[in-house]
Amino acid sequence: MAEKKHLLGLDGVPREEIEAILNTARSFREVLDRPIKRLPTLQGKTVVNLFFEPSTRTRISFELAEKRLSADIVNFSASTSSVKKGETLIDTVKNIQAMKIDMVVIRHSSPGAPHLLSRVLDANIINAGDGGHEHPTQALLDMMTIREKLGKLEGVTVALVGDISHSRVAMSNIHGLTTMGARVLVCGPSTLIPREIEKLGVEVYHNVDEVIPQADVLNILRLQLERQRKGLFPSLREYHNYFGITRERLEKATRPLLIMHPGPMNRGVEISSDVADSEHSVILEQVTNGVAVRMAVLYLLAGGQSEIN
User: Fold this and answer.
1) Which residues pair with 287 in a beta bridge?
2) Same fold, 15-134+287-301 and 136-282
3) Mean pLDDT throughout 92-108?
4) What Rg value do the Cα atoms of the chain yield, rounded?
5) Active-site position among 58, 137, 145, 179
6) What does the pLDDT look like over 70-88, one tens digit per residue?
7) Taking the domains of the chain in order of start, what are their residue ranges?
8) What is the topology classification, in CATH, of domain 15-134+287-301?
9) Which listed residue (6, 45, 68, 107) is catalytic?
10) What local confidence, expressed as pLDDT, does residue 306 receive?
11) Is residue 183 among the annotated active site residues?
12) Of 34, 85, 119, 195, which residue is the catalytic one?
């Protein structure tokens, strides 16, 4: 990880690098439990958070991670910037670069935007979600949570349920989990699953009741209504009837299940409230682990070693 300048996605990232991030994140998770949670690791480094799409959890999580590492932070909002006046992404970031920044965390609606920045900026680039392409830190925090709860990733069966076609979380999870030796199932309406996705090493299902008895983990994805064209499924009610995760459905489980969700949740659509708030849910632990994972990524990209004190 120290040799790599960016975290643009998990496609092609070797197993040992994912292990290094997860092990470092575990150390930072212990730091977050201390009375004094701040470390001087990124003191003197300036991190720009460039969010061109709405975000709550990811943006706050990155900001908190940066503050915990003592970085100087610049928050960029597209809605109040010169982008509104027609300035291009390249001109925006080159102007920011001229202010002598060290790292950029970017979320953008266009797939490949972080890759573009990595070619034109002399800074570490971290992808915080690019269109429907990838969201690597979300997948890393998901893997951290699974490993924390089940003790391993190798051989664990993880089912991704929902809108696979439009989900950057799904793509990063597929790349990361298959690299780590997990069995990955994807389940959703045929209109929401990409063609030939089996080539990525996953198994495809269209009946959630067939998936639940096989799974150790259900990672439930929201319907990305803002990215979909109309007519991909009849109605939200029908979607819930066929794919919504409810208490009744969980009775088909053959072993204790972990329930995960990257958020934001559409309660009563892809997940019922009693499941989201149940003893099976690790959704809030995902949020806590998100800060630790983002601290680890920032630290390692800045040249830190994979063992910390």
Assistant:
1) none
2) yes
3) 89
4) 19
5) 58
6) 999 999 876 655 555 567 8
7) 15-134+287-301, 136-282
8) Rossmann fold (3.40.50)
9) 107
10) 58
11) no
12) 85
204: exposed, middle or buried (Cβ count in 10 Å: 0-12, 13-18, 19+): middle
Contacts made by residues 280-284, CB under 8 angstroms, sequence distance 24+: 280/250, 280/256, 282/145, 282/149, 282/258, 283/259
Rounded Cα distance between 176 and 142, Å, is: 10
Instruction: Say which residues have a Cβ less than 8 Å from residue 189's Cβ, sequence separation at least 6.
Output: 206, 232, 233, 239, 242, 243
Architecture field, domain 136-282: 3-Layer(aba) Sandwich (3.40)
Residue 24: other Cβ atoms inside 10 A: 23
- Average pLDDT of the chain is 90
Do 265 and 222 meet the contact criterion of CB atoms below 8 Å apart?
Answer: yes
CA-CA-CA-CA torsion for 2, 9, 13, 179, nearest 10 degrees? 140
Is-catalytic flag, 107?
yes
pLDDT at 89 over 90: no
Peptide bond into 213 cis (omega under 30): no
The reply to whether 57 belongs to the active site is yes
Laid out side by side, the sheet with 46-51 consists of 72-77, 46-51, 103-108, 124-130
Long-range residue pairs from 113-116, CB within 8 A, at least 24 positions apart, any chain: 113/52, 113/89, 114/6, 114/8, 115/8, 116/89, 116/90
Model pTM greater than 0.90? yes
DSSP 173: H
What is the C-alpha to C-alpha distance for residues 208 and 161, in angstroms, rounded to an integer? 8
Least confident of 47-61, 90-104, 252-266: 90-104
Closest CA to 298 of 3, 6, 55: 6
What is the token pair recorded at 237? 């009610």
